[in-house]
Amino acid sequence: MVRSGLGLPPWDVLHQGVARHTGLSIGTVSICAGAAVLLLWVPIRQRPGLGTVSNVVLVGLSMDATVWLAPEPRSLAVRIPVLTVAVVLNGAATGLYIAARFGPGPRDGLMTGLHRVTGRSVRLVRTGIEAAVLLSGLLLGGTAGAGTVVYALGIGPLAQLFLRVFALPDERARAAGVPPGGSDPGGSRVVARGTADGGRRRAWWRGGAILRR
């Protein structure tokens, strides 16, 4: 998205705004912001995991490395597909790593925690967060564009879609109201992986509730 030149994601508008005032790279600001967002987990009782720590560190480093390595396309016919692919891949990545159950990243953990506490849908919570962050970034001098609007409106529905697509079998069964190892209303057998360990493999987020919404 940075290289497309069509607008940054809302969080990166915020990171860019902070970077302009501090002289730090946008990736370094992303790491610092991720650590700061973890403080918001305390009142909503979110628990961090390996995925949480990995997200804080690796997203910022990957961003700096990609911006350094990737060429900047000049043709609009190339920049628009680059932007589109970036937004869809971000939604897919959100569904993949949250479904892995090693803990969501700081920003996605805030999303799933607020979803759990408020009972609102993932897409509504995520869109609200993105809008608040975007406004803060603009006030700090970050730049936005058409791609920012596309991302802000699209990432919530995409995250919800890919959370369903990549959900593990036991989460699918729970969302459908089928007991682990039980039968669905149509009589087909649902085999829920990870139910024989006495429930030790608990999700960091209530996957069934997310899938239902």
From TrEMBL:
The UniProt record lists the keyword Zinc-finger: no
Annotated stretches, region: Disordered: 176-195
Lineage top rank: taxon: Bacteria
InterPro entries recorded: YczE/YyaS-like
Official protein name in the record: Integral membrane protein
Xref: Pfam families: DUF6198 (PF19700)
Transmembrane regions listed in the UniProt entry: 20-42, 49-70, 76-100
Biased composition range(s): Low complexity: 186-195
Keyword Transmembrane helix assigned: yes
Alphabetic keyword roster: Membrane, Transmembrane, Transmembrane helix
Organism in which the protein naturally occurs: Streptomyces nanshensis
